[in-house]
Design a protein that fits this description.
Among the domains are: 117 residues, Aldehyde oxidase/xanthine dehydrogenase, molybdopterin binding domain (Aldehyde Oxidoreductase, domain 4), CATH 3.30.365; 203 residues, Aldehyde Oxidoreductase, domain 4 (2-Layer Sandwich), CATH 3.30.365.10. Helix content is 25%, strand content 24%. The protein has a 7-stranded mixed β-sheet with strand order 3-7-1-14-11-12-13, with helices on both faces. Helix 9 packs parallel to helix 16 and helix 12 runs parallel beside helix 13. By secondary structure, it is an alpha+beta fold. The chain has 17 helices and 26 strands. The protein binds dioxothiomolybdenum(VI) ion.
């Protein structure tokens, strides 16, 4: 155990913009992703997904397919290797207990894997494979009023309900009340790189190359599922082309690849199609959220109630924690937040960028805007009036909370003071113009990690940590952190990541990666420098110091620790077509110490772009009769493309935070939080019509316009 001592050197590379270490390799194609690394004797697996939404597999008619060119095997529930049921990072995960029984819980559930010499042969055989089902009636219709809605139990990731005071009395005593329902649709990650995995046996070890956010966690899961020693499993994920939570857990492709490698004794790769990604790697549940706010005429909240409903599958419980955001943002004497969920015959939802906060902030920050209008107050002034001194639910002090600093700086840059608060007041030909704002917040958490830092005999340093770079720039940020911790130039440091052999580390998720890994690297570097201070030469295999931050993290003070931000948007709404165009966005954040301004800015712009996309475009639609998506591809699933994205300006205010020696809070997710609400609030300001259902499609804008406002 290495003590977590010392601070990151102030005058080093942390805080300076650096281009990605692997940027050249990526743009020249030298960087290889899991689906494209060559292996000798590689066979290819093609997933066969169920076409029914509920029922049982009666038969898999393999024989004709096994006679097709190149086909090596057809795996299904009757012949696939048996899997141990195990508890992973978050407990048992039935979404990867695949090909174990005949049960079909949703359209797209893996029911077979065809393995062939080439990917084309596997695909053709998979298309030809006849599977017969015993179909049962299904239910995929989500609404907050669904009779199957229940209150889930608390879990390590979810506090189901919080409450203090008397909400009904608080609302009754309030001069101004907002009581509305907001909905968000099913949304998907759509990482550019589809999930892909290769598994092979190499000198008695299971070697896996997989696109994921946490190779060590995947190695642990695979070892348990396939009853192997952890030491005989190696998982690598050197380059990952986007993940957003969809790659945060062990997913079916890697399980199928391992099964196929066992059965065929060949290296086998499984790559998902875009369409398959809509069904087996998680998504954001649709939400229905009721927000009730009661305030005095001066905007001070008396009653705060946020009730969030979402869906999960029949096999696994995942709850989108949309009501969590008010536990941090706003206080009231009567304060209540709750989550309910319903089990439907659909795939299991999962983490998607800012799980909870993204849809929750749409509802809450829209409701706050509605309250401000009803109070006749500026929405920023109303937020300032309700700034809590301590965590509204926890009662804990904030490690730092500079949300008002974000609004102040944002308002100044955006020109908020010039705004005419009346809705529908600004018009430019057929365009109605409006501006809107919303608050953002995301937790700044941390988790234990291990790292090793080696002083090489040639004067360079090698850092080994099972971090993952999802395209975020993590590798570069960690090199900067190591350079400062060792007080050497960047070019003397090589950071090796994404190999489970390097040991336990936090996954690249929850906006926790950089901070968690920085603590471990800093601790190992500090230990190494102590060793190097002793007399003696560096042996040819170098001197290595290791760290494990579990104890140091356990000793951190209990505080409310979050990133904050203020989102601004200007929109133009075409009264003839109902089209909403975002003209500009501005996000100002207070996100602790920023390691690499270049890549930090791109993370925040990416999040805000996704918020725009969420506000105006994204929704996965299911056919009630079949239970299947009607738009499971990038043509039918609309999202913001270049022409939809205006200039997005991002900056941050100083946010010194001494909760730990890194001062890092993490900013991978906060960019999406509040962005959709800022746009919806701007659409209201432009048109006078409040859109409480996302996305704000042209038909909805026109319909609302034709009803008058
Ligand atoms: Mo992120 S949804 O924690 O990968």
């Amino acid at each position: 155990m290495t003590a977590m001592t010392g601070t990151v050197a102030a005058a080093g590379t942390v805080g300076a913009s650096r281009t990605r270490m692997e940027g050249r390799a990526k743009v020249t194609g030298a960087a290889r992703y899991a689906g494209e690394i060559p292996f000798a004797d590689l066979a290819h697996g093609w997933l066969v997904a169920s076409t029914i939404a509920r029922g049982r597999v009666r038969s898999v008619e393999s024989a004709p397919v096994l006679a097709m060119p190149g086909v090596l095997a057809v795996l299904h529930h009757q012949n696939a290797p048996r899997l141990e049921e195990f508890a992973g990072m978050l407990g048992p995960d039935p979404t990867i207990q695949i090909l174990q029984n005949d049960r079909v819980p949703h359209v797209g559930w893996p029911v077979a894997l065809v393995v062939a010499e080439t990917s084309e042969q596997a695909r053709e055989a998979a298309d030809a494979l006849v599977i017969r089902y015993d179909q049962e009636p299904h239910d995929i219709a989500f609404s907050a009023q669904h009779p199957g809605m229940y209150t889930p139990d608390d879990s390590p990731l979810l506090v189901t309900e919080t409450g203090k005071g008397d909400i009904e009395a608080g609302l009754a005593a309030s001069a101004v009340v907002v009581d509305e329902e907001y909905t968000t649709p099913e949304e998907h990650h759509n990482a550019m790189e589809p999930h892909a995995a290769m598994a092979r046996w190499d000198s008695g070890r299971l070697e896996v190359v997989d696109s994921n956010q946490g190779p060590f966690a995947v190695a642990q899961d695979l070892a348990k599922m396939f009853s192997l020693d952890l030491a005989s499993v190696r998982v690598r994920s050197e380059h990952v082309g986007g993940a957003f939570g969809s790659k945060g857990l062990t997913r079916p492709p890697v399980v199928l690849a391992v099964m196929a490698a066992i059965v065929t004794d060949r290296p086998v790769r499984v790559v998902l199609t875009r369409r398959q990604m809509f069904s087996v790697v998680g998504y954001r549940s649709p939400t229905a959220q009721r927000v009730r706010l009661g305030a005095d005429t001066d905007g001070r909240l008396r009653a705060f109630d946020h009730q969030a409903a979402s869906l999960t599958s029949t096999i696994h419980e995942f709850v989108e924690s949309s009501a969590g955001i008010g536990r941090v943002m706003y206080d009231a004497d009567a304060h209540h937040t709750s989550h309910r969920v319903v089990r439907l015959d659909v795939p299991t939802p999962s983490w998607m960028r800012a799980p909870g906060e993204a849809p929750g902030s749409f509802a809450l920050e829209s409701a706050i805007d509605e309250l401000a209008h009803k109070c006749g107050m500026d929405p920023i002034a109303l937020r300032a009036r309700n700034e809590p001194a301590v965590g509204p639910v926890s009662g804990l002090p904030f490690s730092s909370r500079n949300v008002l600093g974000c609004f102040e700086e944002g308002a100044r840059r955006f020109g908020w003071a010039d705004r005419d608060p009346r809705p529908g007041a600004a018009r430019e030909g057929r365009w109605l113009l409006g501006t809107g704002t919303a608050a953002a917040t995301y937790p700044a958490r941390v988790a234990p990690s291990t790292a090793a830092v080696t002083a090489e005999a040639d004067g360079t340093f090698t850092v080994r940590i099972t971090a993952v770079d999802l395209g975020t720039g993590a590798r570069t940020a960690l090199t900067q952190i190591a350079a400062d911790a060792l007080e050497v130039e960047l070019d003397r440091i090589q950071v090796k990541i994404a190999d489970s052999d390097f040991g336990q580390a936090m996954i690249a998720g929850g906006s926790m990666g950089t901070r968690s890994w920085a603590l471990a690297i800093t601790a190992a570097a500090t230990e190494l420098r102590a060793q190097l201070a002793l007399p003696g030469d560096i042996p040819s295999d170098g001197i290595t110091a290791r760290s494990d931050t579990a104890e140091a993290i356990g000793a951190l003070a209990r505080q409310e620790r979050h990133s904050f931000g203020a989102q601004f948007a200007e929109v133009a709404v075409d009264v003839t077509t109902g089209e909403v165009r975002v003209r500009r966005m501005l996000g100002i954040f207070a996100a602790g110490r920023v390691v690499n301004p270049l890549t930090a800015r791109s993370q925040l712009i990416g999040g805000m772009t996704w918020g725009l996309s969420m506000a105006l475009h994204e929704e996965a639609i299911r056919d009630q009769a079949s239970g299947a998506h009607v738009n499971a591809d990038l043509a039918g699933y609309h999202f913001a493309s270049n022409a939809d994205v205006p200039v997005i300006e991002v900056d941050w205010v100083d946010d010194p935070d001494t909760h730990d020696p890194t001062g890092i809070k993490g900013l991978g997710e906060i960019g999406i939080v509040g962005a959709a609400a800022a746009i919806a609030n701007a659409v209201w300001h432009a048109t006078g019509v409040r859109h409480r259902d996302l996305p704000i499609r042209p038909d909805r804008v026109l319909l609302a316009g034709s009803r008058g406002c």
